[in-house]
Structure formats: structure tokens, C-alpha cells
Amino acid sequence: MEDQNANVLSLNEHEGQQQQKPKQKPSAGLWLGGITFTIAIAAIGFLLAKVPGFDRVGPLACAIVIAVIYRHFFNYPEKIRAGIQFSTKRFLRFAIILYGLKLNIDVVLHQGLGLLARDIVVIAFAILLTVWIGKLLKAESSLVLMLGIGTGVCGAAAIAAVSPIIKAKDEDTAIGVGIIALVGTIFSVGYTILRPILPLSSIDYGIWSGISLHEIAHVALAGAPAGPDGLAIALLAKLGRVLLLVPLCFILMYWVKRRSSGNTGDTKIEFPWFLIGFIVMSLFGSYVLGHSIPVSNKVMEVIAMATTFIMTSAMVGLGLNVSLRDLKTKAARPLIAMLITSVLLSILAYFIA
Hints:
Radius of gyration: 23 Å
Structural class: mainly alpha
Largest sheet: none
Distance between the termini: 88 Å
Helix content: over 70%
Low-confidence stretches: 4-22
Order of helices and strands: HHHHHHHHHHHHHHHH
Number of strands: 0
């Protein structure tokens, strides 16, 4: 009997040692393979975005769609998961930091202060209305919140910036980026169609586009028919909304902290250090590049394209977390909420432009 007990104890100890063994780290080859995979899909997304029709949607949405389709037919590539997750987290934060170069703080503060007040109204309206409609429709709360922020601020970049703060699922982040790209494209094309029949000057039309459309690319597309002056004021109005992304993120951090303070679970919120990088790059681009360091427009275009490519690579990882089977039921209600908000936001912006 004692021998049997000893054998049982020995067996239990052996099993315990097996359970306590640390998980084997993936090899450098598999890690690099995951990063290469996301870069390859991003490159395909860029090529697809050059095809007529898809060029309206943009490479981010194209890459996400490719990743979702890959997941549906071939499942998630588990062997290279570590590299994919690295791209998803690190590339995304790095892209947001580089995105700061697009924000000329000096121009916004000296020429766009009047537009900032309207930008604040637009952001508050978009977020509150989207969340309220989402509650009525019983839609996924974190997804609806991200869509409201993306609609009010700056599309995919805003969604990417706030998703770690509100601890959103990768799947929801990817769906949000896809929806914002689709709806923003439809609205920007609609604006260009309405331009000739609207009783708005080129400046007023530019302000309307800049304070109501989703992405900077959407504003550029819609603002182009208004001429150089209309496009310039449209981009200026949009940059004011980008500037407000930073204080909004800190407000969200405070809100999440307060909301979770009563829970017994983990209430720790990771500080979004990439926002500090965003601010630093904004200051660098506003007061150093073009002043102390002369830079051509061609170089800035290359940096902008690189930023988009890095963010697109990150979106591949997010897209791989989306289940096509669940997409219909999960995306339909947030999409409806965002569509209603976008229509009402366009009407509001028209009257305050």
C-alpha cells in the first residue's frame, strides 16, 4: 500500500513538473515569418487598392478583407502567431507615432482656432449619438464607441489609438476600421456628387467636408473639387480634429479608470506612450521639418506612404482575428448606428460650416 502511495505521489510530481514547464518560445524564423506574412498581405492590399473601385476604399480596408478571407478558408496561422502579434501591436503604435507628422500644430493654432470649436462640437456629437443609438440597437458597446470616435476624430488612426485604452478586442478593432473605411468612402464620393448643386462657396464646402468626413484621405477626396483654397481649409479643419485626439485619449483613460474602479478585477490601464511619440513627431514636423531641416514634398509623401504601409501591416493581424461567420451578426447593428450618426453629422456640419 505504501509502495502504491509512493508511486502515485511520484506520478503526481512528474505531472506537476510537466505542467510547470514554460512554454517554448517560437524560433526567430517563425517570428520573422509572422512579420513577413503581415507585410506580404499588406503589399497585396496596396496593389488591390490601385484597382479601379478598390482605390476608393484604400489599402487598409483591402488588407483587412484579404486577412479575413484567409482566416475563413485557411484558419489562423498559429505557427507564426508571435510574429503576427508583434506586427499588430508594435507596428500599429509606430504608425500612430509617424502619423503625428501629418499634424501641423502651428498651422492649426494660428489659422484654425475658429475651426477647433466646431471640431469639438462635431466630436462630442458623433461619439454621444453613436453610443446612444448603439445602446438602443443593443450593439457591441466597445465597437460602437470606437466607431463613434473614428467618425468624430480621424477614422482608422483614432480607432487604433483608443482600442488599447478601452481594452477592445482585436476583432472589434478590425471590424471598426473596415466599417469606417467603407462608410467614409461612400460619404466622400457622395460629397463630390453634391458639390455642384449645393449653395456653398468653396471655403464653406471645404469646412463642411473637413469637420464631417472620417479619414484625412476622405477629406482630401471630397475637398479636391472645391479647388486649392477649399481643399486647404478642408484639411485644416480635419487637422484640428486630429489634434483633439490626444486630449480625447486622456479623457478616455480617466473615464475607463473611474468606470472600472468599483470592479474587483484588473483595473490597470496601460499608459499610451505612443501618444507621447505622436505629440513629439507633431512638434518635430511643425517646428523643425521645413524650418531647421528643409524637406521636400516628395520626401514627406514617401514618409506618408510608409506610415500607411506600416499601419496596413498591423491591420492584417487584426483582420486575422475576425470570424467571417460572426461578422454579419456583430457588424450589422454598429454599422447602422454609424450610418445614422454620419448622416445626422453631415446635416449638423452643413449648418455650422
